[in-house]
Amino acid sequence: MSALIERKTGDRQSIAIETTDAARFAASKRRLTAAQRRWLTDCGFDATPGTFALIADESGKLIRVLVGVDTGDVLSSLGALPRTLPEAVYHLADEGVPKDTLQIALGWALGAYEFTRYRKARRAPARLAIAAAELDVLAPLVEATTQVRDLVNTPTEDMGPKHLADAVKRLGKAHKGKVREWVGDELLDANFPTIHAVGRASHRAPRLIELNWGKTSDPKLAVIGKGVCFDTGGLDLKPADGMRWMKKDMGGAAHAIALAGLIMQAKLPVRLTLLIPAVENAVSGAAMRPGEVITTRAGITVEVDNTDAEGRLVLCDAITYASEQKPDLIVDFATLTGAARIALGPDLPALFGNRDDLAERVLAAGREVNDPLWRLPLWRPYRKMLESYLADMANSGASRHAGAITAALYLERFVPETTAWLHLDTYAWNDGDRPGRPRGGEALGLRAFFAFLQQRYS
Ligand code: BES
Ligand code: ZN
Ligand code: ZN
Predict the structure, then answer these.
(1) Residue 339 CA: which ligand 1 atom is closest?
(2) How far is the CA of 195 from the centre of ligand 2 (A)?
(3) pLDDT digit string (tens) for 351-376?
(4) Distance (Å, whole) CA 443 – CA 142
(5) Ligand 1, pocket-test mutation among 333, 337, 430, most atoms within 8 A of CB
């Protein structure tokens, strides 16, 4: 953390950053010397969002940085700075715009990230010093985002089902939560047939990981994440370009783990159950075949129409298990469908929910914390697309229409009507480098859900 943002001290050694826009820049020129004005003119600085200019005093010492910001997108306006400004400690000048230093500092910290497990950092990031109270709010969010990015960026060989279990165990240790798991055939004995079926082809055993934390008298909250550590598609094998990035198919698990960490760190008054079905959707002689029928934990029989629609299979038994505890709310995160990306693109996760008021509140929370989501409908008539000719339902159908919706409708079948449920179909990834959004694993919807849960439970 100290590498990204740090606690502001009385020491004025740090360099001022003045966030500005065209109008303010014109007005603020009065505060500059003639030489500094000339320098800025010669550099062509006009406060365009995303640009910056360095200002020196008469001795040539760097004393101030002017940064053009788009007040409508503060996160990305500041996101490039930690990797472009000279390595030093900076602070935000009082004259800056907008006044929301939390969002500015968040953009800074998100942009400072680099995944350094397999190679050295290209450079040390410039650091931003902020007030202690702001750092207390921000540090957990930055840490959680970093955790999601690191988990997702880690290749499958180093991020298999067991590694996800290790991550949950570390979390349990840190917050005195109880962790248990069912591994391999234990899944069959304990009646988690779909998780076993999806993961049984891999040389690394499938597992269901559970963490419990909090007072049993508090409202029960279940957080579930799709932990498909690699999705080959199974026997319905993905083509090479569709498989290339499928190490990220545990992105939902990464979100769920990070959210659980935030909940426990904030000591939200909930009885938390974190559930991670962790598998590899692999190909081998033991692989589940298209056309097989699985009797799910709920007793609903499912025909495997497509082995590549595996996410909903591992999630459905976890959802059934969660609902047996009669929770106040179930939330699940999953890189569930390509169709959600076709509908909303990579940056907007698709939100589904069986309670309109709750879904609306998550959307509102997302707007408040600059972590946008978009809602798609649980359009019941499309259930028809999941009809099977011999089982209660199929895991996919002949039509690719409304793929994100039919996947959500599949999951909804496993949620009792009396249980509130929210489902996020997220991409968990940045295809390219953008300011504040480095290429690779990304947390999308994490801050929105945490803000929503804080509002609901405190
Ligand atoms: N993990 C994929 C979905 C995915 C693909 C997410 C690309 C993000 C990027 C999922 O398991 C899958 O393969 N879904 C299929 C479902 C289909 C077979 C019904 C899909 O979306 O094509
Ligand atoms: Zn798949
Ligand atoms: Zn998948």
Answers:
(1) 21
(2) 14
(3) 999 999 999 999 999 999 999 999 99
(4) 10
(5) 337
Question: Ligand 1 pocket, 338 CB below 6 A?
Answer: yes
Q: In angstroms, what CA-CA distances link 13 with 9, 36, 108, 448?
A: 10, 21, 19, 36
Q: What are 57-80's pLDDT values in tens digits?
A: 999 999 999 999 988 888 888 899
Q: Which of 149, 204, 207, 312 is catalytic?
A: 312
**Two tokens, residue 35:** 């030489």
Catalytic residue status for 8 = no
**Separation of alpha carbons 231 and 196, rounded Å:** 15
**What pLDDT score does 223 carry?**
99
- Residue (of 100, 174, 110) closest to 139 by Cα position: 110
CA of 308 to the centre of ligand 1 (A): 7
Counting atoms of ligand 1 from 1, which one is nearest the CA of 236?
A: 18
Residues 6+ apart with CB under 8 A from 367: none
Q: What's the token pair of residue 79?
A: 């996101």
- Output the CA–CA distances (angstroms, integers) from residue 8 to 64, 96, 311, in the order listed: 17, 17, 45
> Residue with structure tokens 């304990």?
190
Contact yes or no for 455/365 (Cβ under 8 A): yes
For the chain, how are helix, strand and coil distributed in percent, rounded to 5? 40, 20, 40
